[in-house]
Structures are given as C-alpha cells and as structure tokens.
UniProtKB/TrEMBL annotation:
Pfam families: DUF4430. The keyword GTP-binding does not apply. Residues 175-238 form the Transcobalamin-like C-terminal domain. Keywords: Signal. This is Transcobalamin-like C-terminal domain-containing protein. InterPro entries: Transcobalamin-like_C. It comes from Paenibacillus oralis.
Length: 241
C-alpha cells in the first residue's frame, strides 16, 4: 500500500497526460454510416485499443475506441492513436504518451489476447477486435509480469512544457538516483557526476535551475548516491530561481 501511495503524485500527472493525449490525438476517419457494421441491438461495432502499464507502471490504463473502417490494419490503428510513437522502421513502439522504457523493457502488442509481433502488424482488423499495448520484459510474452520498477519524471514547468517526459526503469537492487538518471538517456551530468547539466538537451539559463526530488522530497547535492526502493518516483523539475 505504501509503495502505491508513493507513485500517486507522479502517476496522477502521468494519467492526466494520457487522458489529454488521447483526447487530442488524431484518429482514423469515421466511415459513412452505411459502412458501419451494426450489431443485432443496433449499436456500431468498434475497435478498442488499450494502453496498460501492468505492474511496471501501476494505475496507468487507457482505452481508445475507433469506428471500424474496412481495410484498417493493426499498424494503422497504432499510428492513428495520437499517443503511440513508432520507431523509424516501424519495427517496434518507441514510446507511448512520452513514456519511454529502459533496455530491459519493451512495449508489447496483443490482438484479441494473442501476442502479435511487429512483422504481423499489417494484419487486417475486424469489427470488435481488441488491441492491447502493454509493458513487458524483453523477450517475454507475459501480459502482467511480476516486476518492480522506478519512475523518472521530467517536468519543464509552464515555461517549457515540451520537456515533459517519463522514463520507466526495471528495478534493480542498489540502484541509485545517479544510476537512474544516467540510464534514462535524458539527463546529462557534469564530468564528476555531481549535478545535472541538461535534461533532454535543454540547459537552463541564468534565471532557471533543476530541482531534483524523490517521492516529492527535495534532494540535497549529495542525494545522487541515495539508493532507490521499488516504485520510487524521481522527479526533475525546471524552476525559476
């Protein structure tokens, strides 16, 4: 229970981001009414796309509904979600809603409860199909693998909202704050690894500074050596001095 509470601050923001992204994201053009397949009770069939963070990103779950269009593929549904970013070669999901994963985790895709590798994303969908995008360990097909994780949140504030990013790292014993920052690929530390130089390529000007917190508690300059616990939330926020 305590571990779940520690995640609430970061996850409330994360869930809000998913909600906003889903509401604003592009969708597949709605077919003409004559093209919609109707069930016996007169309701239109649709395609459901579910985003599920599983045990790695607890409480993150979002559903999108598309009106069925003849000829639509799994790949087109993923691309039309507005929150899923694919790799350049379309061989994998790069991120979902600004959430990226460490090298031991990946986004999996299942169609009607069956694992669907990227080579099969050209598969045509049928009315009523369900697509699941979920977090899994690399090489695993388990929908809800047992695993603790760490969450890194980057918040650029109102002056730089484009810096908003999330990084999920599979928990390893003895992982420090510094380890998490380095492994995220988002944070540049100085040569001695004592303080943050830039985040996601952004260097603060003379009126700004990075503030580092763990579970909403501000860290001192020596806090980078702090060992993290499962489900800890590390946050980097850009503030005015």
């Amino acid at each position: 229970m305590r571990n779940r509470l520690k995640w609430l601050a970061g996850l409330v923001i994360l869930m809000a981001f998913f909600t906003a992204a889903c509401a604003d994201g592009g969708t597949i053009d709605k077919p003409d009414p004559s093209e919609e397949l109707q069930s016996e009770d007169g309701e239109a069939h649709d395609i459901t796309l579910t985003i599920d963070g599983g045990t790695f990103i607890p409480d993150v779950k979002r559903k999108l509904h598309f009106d069925y269009t003849e000829g639509i593929t799994v790949l087109q549904a993923l691309e039309s979600s507005g929150i899923i970013e694919l790799a350049e070669d379309r061989s994998k999901i790069q991120s979902v809603g600004a959430v990226s994963l460490d090298s031991t985790l990946e986004w999996g895709v299942r169609l009607n409860d069956r694992e669907l590798p990227s080579g099969d994303w050209a598969k045509l969908l049928k009315a009523g199909d369900n697509i699941l995008v979920y977090v899994k360990t690399v090489g695993s097909a388990a929908v809800s693998p047992n695993g603790a994780s760490l969450l890194l949140t980057v918040n650029g504030g109102s002056q730089n909202p484009q810096l908003k990013r999330y990084f999920v790292h599979q928990y390893n014993e003895n992982t420090t704050v510094r380890d998490l920052l380095k492994r995220s690929g988002l944070v540049e530390l100085n040569k001695t690894g004592q303080y943050i130089v830039s985040v996601n390529g952004y260097r603060p000007d003379d009126t700004e500074a990075w503030v580092l917190k763990v579970n909403q508690k501000k860290l001192l300059s020596t806090g980078l050596d702090m060992r993290l616990k499962p489900q800890d939330n590390v946050e980097i926020t850009l503030v005015r001095k």
